[in-house]
Description:
Helices cover 76% and strands 0% of the residues. The longest helix has 31 residues. The model has no long low-confidence stretch (mean pLDDT 83).
Amino acid sequence: MNVVMFYLLSAIILIFSLLSITTRKILRAAVYLLFVLVATSGFYFLLNYEFMAAVQLTLYAGGIVVLIIFSILLTSHISHKFKHPALLNLLMGAGVAVIGAGVALYIIFNEKFTANGQPELPVDMTAIGTQLLSTEKNGYVLPFELISVLLLAAIIAAIVIAKKGKQEEKES
Length: 172
């Protein structure tokens, strides 16, 4: 069953990744990105990394994509369509993709991935949660708060710029 789920999640990620970069509608691209991120969390569940899967779902699929979708809806660009890319841009993008895939496949097939033979370490979820909520040394509350304020400022700035451009179009 794990093999079937692996191939199903892989197919979902590949299909929706291609759809998100080839669609010309911006809202559809954001929704396709949501499917990719949810399927990625499925890989973490298959690996029994429930904490990483939860972080993937809440932070990326639940937070970032929702912010992107709200930004699109708030700026009234829901029907925005991207122009067709130039042929040179398509060829360059395809070339970079082929080179990247070639490098990745070369490394995967030529590297000997061996286990280190050490026993698996126990995971203490209480210690992880305490460290995530700690403000002391090696705590992560301050970086999370700074990033959230930065994201909020970026969203507000994007909305102000988009609204300002819309008002200038009405005046012309």
